[in-house]
Amino acid sequence: MDENKIAELRARAENLYRNKQYLCSESLFTVVNDHLGRPVPAEVVRLASGFPVGMGLAGCSCGALTGGIMALGLKYGRTEPGADNAAALAKAKELHDWFHEEFGSTCCKVLIRRFEFGSPEHLEQCIRITGAVTEHVLRMLPQESAADNHAPRRVG
After folding, report:
1. Calpha distance 58→48 (Å, rounded)
2. What pTM was computed for the model?
3. What is the count of structural domains for the chain?
4. What is the DSSP string of 25-63?
């Protein structure tokens, strides 16, 4: 994928958040799902709605990280019982490790502790992280056509 397309998709995720249409996990998941040609209906974003602010305001795992793992599942996740799950687990760990290295923590409350909750600075921090994770997830996807990005993985 070319750099302009990555930048465009990153900006779209950031703007969905900035414009209060979606929060971190929802913005990221929506952009990647659309980019992949909607392997799942747009309404599936509902599954990402509980992850913002560290899993439902709990301050735990960053919603951009959990949304990114969900988005990677669109390509690497399994759809059949007993199917191979190794690729999804490896990609989730790869994203987790990159995130921790990039931001110093995966914990939402640690990532935003310097800011007053809901302040413009807090929101810009989360928007920036959402954009960075969106970009990284896009780079983790194979360079194939959108229509090929959601073929089921089966064992045997």
Report:
1. 15
2. 0.90
3. 1
4. HHHHHHHHHHHTT-SS-GGGGGGGTT-HHHHTTS--B-H
